[in-house]
Design goal:
heterodimer; A: Transcription Regulator spoIIAA; 4 helices; 6 strands; globular; B: alpha+beta; five-stranded antiparallel β-sheet; elongated
């Protein structure tokens, strides 16, 4: 898994590439904790290049979302599609998180 | 000509009717199959039309018998083998399509008028099958043909006088058929049987294409429908022999056009058969068709080739590939292309052999079937991997599924589902420290099923599959632990959790 971040005007975009599973979820959680600890509390997570997510990956998303909520922040998910979208729908995560078709849409919603 | 039309009508009617165990039930128009040409000419030169007709009847009976065994020969025709055949059908059309399309002379010059006719025909067909919505797409080929005829008339590619002469024999006339005296010769038996086999393989590829274009979720050839289709094929060939004309077969060009236009209803085939029958009584129609401008034929063949090539590629790539399959697919295509490129290699071969060896489709198909059978040797349908309960070892399991799926030629989608389900299971077993020792993963594959069994000693896998509510997910950490079982049940078609020999067993079944 690879995580790239990019600061935009109103939020930070976190792009994830590869797999988000039990092996890689701790790395994701650590990166998100660093961002939130550094004051980046308006985040857009870009799933465009994410190939697979397991329930352990979902737990990672949930943990960081709870942390962000405690800090009064916001997170939106962009480009959730294909098998990743199926996992979101089956697990009910689709109704927990705010999702946008594009990163631009998510940034506009946070502005 | 009349005998040919009647034979085509009979074959098309049986193919589309699908009654009493005969006919595939798809829109498969029968035409005289050129693969019969060399052996039929040879037979006619030895013993006249009677011998050619008699031997063609034998070939038809052989195809009919072959059709009865076809449902038991499923392993000969996996999706990728059918894909190679269909791809080569498309590629082999290019050689006859392009010279017609360009109006190539023997000196290699391009005729600009022919190109203009072909461009008008092809542009009309392609444009009308892509952009318009509604029923006009169904008539794209018909409109393209009309445009081609019109342009050919304007550019003097067809003589208006020759068009007027189509009425010379009157509008209606009774078909004149002289049945030959059928003969048989042992020396021609093997050549005709081999030709019948190639013709049947040609029809197998055609009917598989029909199945694929009629089923959006096509997975594998339906051998029942194939068997009935080849029976219709055999009876059609026998009828052609009785009438003293060339053996018939399913026309792949027509199937490609049917796919491109979306006109796939078998009723169209039944109407086509009736129209063919009617043309035997209406000479002007047959004459008009026989005067179709050559560049128009070239344009239609190019259009058909495009669809067959992409359809074949789609079938090949629907399955996972390991080195065996790479060599089978690639090697067969190279063999077929070699025949096209170096036709001189078989110049001194016997005529009966040339009828097969000159056909890129026949060579590639026979090569693919043979290599597929050869490479099955040593391929285990069962595979096992044993890992220590550590997260890092899950990567080995992913490689295990990737390699096994490739050697089985399984559908990628099914292997990905199995991999995802086992990944969920292993993550849970390892993170919750349920296993007290190694974990065994056993997989068994056949064309219809993939069964995976995960065995370990320790605590049972919590197979709760009740979906937690959004509130529970946000507030209750334990609710998240229900997700693995929920996801596993979505990935697998059947899940069973039990204990065997003091070991925990999770059985996952996937339909393939």
């Amino acid at each position: 898994m690879e995580i790239r971040t990019k600061k935009e005007a109103h939020a930070t975009v976190v792009a994830i590439t590869g797999r988000l599973d039990a092996v890689t979820a701790p790395e994701y959680e650590k990166k998100m904790q660093e961002l939130i600890g550094g004051g980046d509390i308006r985040l857009v997570v870009d799933f465009e290049a994410l190939e697979y997510i397991s329930s352990a990956g979902l737990r990672g998303l949930l943990v960081t979302a709870k942390l962000l909520k405690a800090k009064g922040g916001h997170v939106r998910f962009a480009n959730v599609a294909g098998t990743v979208k199926e996992v979101f729908d089956i697990s009910g995560f689709g109704s927990i998180f705010q999702m946008d078709a594009t990163v631009a849409g998510a940034l506009a919603a946070l502005s | 000509m009349t005998a040919s039309i009647l034979a085509m009508a009979a074959g098309t009617f049986l193919q589309c009717l699908a009654r009493s165990g005969i006919g595939s039930g798809y829109l498969g128009v029968h035409i005289n199959n050129p693969v019969y040409l060399p052996v039929s000419i040879q037979a006619a030169s030895i013993g006249g039309i009677g011998l050619a007709g008699g031997m063609t009847v034998i070939a038809g009976i052989f195809s009919a018998i072959f059709s009865r065994f076809l449902p038991h020969l499923r392993h000969l025709f996996p999706a990728e083998v059918c894909g190679v055949g269909i791809l080569m059908l498309g590629i082999s059309m290019v050689g006859s399509a392009v010279p017609r399309l360009l109006g190539l002379t023997s000196a290699g010059h391009v005729d600009p008028n022919s190109v203009a006719v072909a461009v008008v025909t092809l542009t009309l067909i392609v444009a009308l099958s892509i952009w318009p919505t509604g029923h006009i797409r169904l008539y794209s080929v018909l409109i393209g043909l009309a445009g081609g005829y019109g342009t050919a008339l304007c550019l003097d590619i067809i003589d208006p006088v020759s068009l007027r002469s189509v009425m010379d024999s009157g509008f209606l006339a009774l078909p004149a058929i002289t049945l030959p005296e059928w003969k048989f010769q042992w020396a021609l038996l093997i050549p005709f049987l081999m030709t019948a086999l190639v013709s049947s393989l040609d029809s197998v590829a055609g009917i598989v294409t029909c199945q694929k274009i009629n089923q959006s979720e096509w997975v594998r050839p339906d051998m029942g429908s194939l068997g009935r289709g080849i029976l219709a094929d055999g009876v059609g060939v026998a009828v052609a022999g009785v009438l003293g004309t060339l053996g018939t077969g399913v026309s792949s060009a027509h199937i490609a056009l049917s796919s491109a236009t979306g006109a796939t209803a078998r009723r169209i085939g039944l109407v086509t058969a009736m129209l063919l029958l009617a043309t035997a009584f209406v000479p002007p129609v047959a004459k008009l068709l026989s005067r179709m401008p050559v560049p128009v034929i070239g344009a239609v063949l190019v259009y058909a080739a495009v669809f067959l090539i992409t359809s074949g590629m789609g079938l090949i790539t629907s399955r996972m590939m390991d080195n065996r399959r790479v060599f089978m697919v690639g090697g067969s295509i190279v063999a077929g292309l070699s025949v096209m490129q170096f036709s001189g290699l078989i110049t001194h071969s016997p005529d009966w052999f040339c009828s097969i060896a000159r056909s890129p489709f026949a060579v590639a198909s026979i090569c693919a079937i043979t290599l597929n059978l050869l490479f099955r040797i040593g391929t285990a349908r069962n595979a096992t991997i044993c890992i220590e309960p550590q997260l890092i070892n899950i990567l080995e399991v992913r490689n295990f599924f990737e390699n096994s799926g490739g050697s089985w030629g399984a559908r990628r989608q099914v292997i990905q589902r199995a991999d995802a389900a086992v990944n969920e299971l292993l993550e849970t077993v390892i993170l919750m420290e349920l296993a007290s020792g190694t974990i065994d993963i056993r997989a068994r594959f056949d064309e219809y099923n993939l069964d995976v069994v995960v065995l370990y000693s320790g605590l049972a896998f919590p197979a709760l599959d009740q979906r937690p509510s959004p509130e529970q997910l946000l507030e209750d950490d334990d609710a998240v632990m229900r997700l693995p079982a929920l996801l596993i049940r979505q990935y697998a078609d059947r899940v069973n959790v039990d204990t065997v020999n003091h070991q925990q067993r999770v059985s996952l079944h996937f339909e393939h």
